[in-house]
Design a protein that fits this description.
The protein is mainly α and 107 residues long. Helix content is 51%, strand content 10%. It has a two-stranded antiparallel ribbon with strand order 1-2.
Amino acid sequence: MGGKKKLTIKQMARTQERKERERKERRFASATDKKSIGIVLPDLKSGKVIGELKKMKALTPYTVATRFDLRLSVAKDFLEELERRGIVEYVSGSKNLKIYKPLVSAT
């Protein structure tokens, strides 16, 4: 009747060899193609970065991450560093979300 026909022994051996070859290639490719992710904060002394921050009404890690193309964890660290330097001020928030505002007198 209908249905898939059985493969011959030679055909089964070929598919098995092909699968093993692909598995080995994937294993070697993933080991050699791994790249370390360099996490770099934007330059805090740059007038362009400070200008962008001053334009924003509220600064959250998400808005900073999307504006400067950063990870959320990096954006959180960036905002904490800006607060330490007196460029932004902590307004409110909780354990999960912190809201900052830029200081007008920051240079």
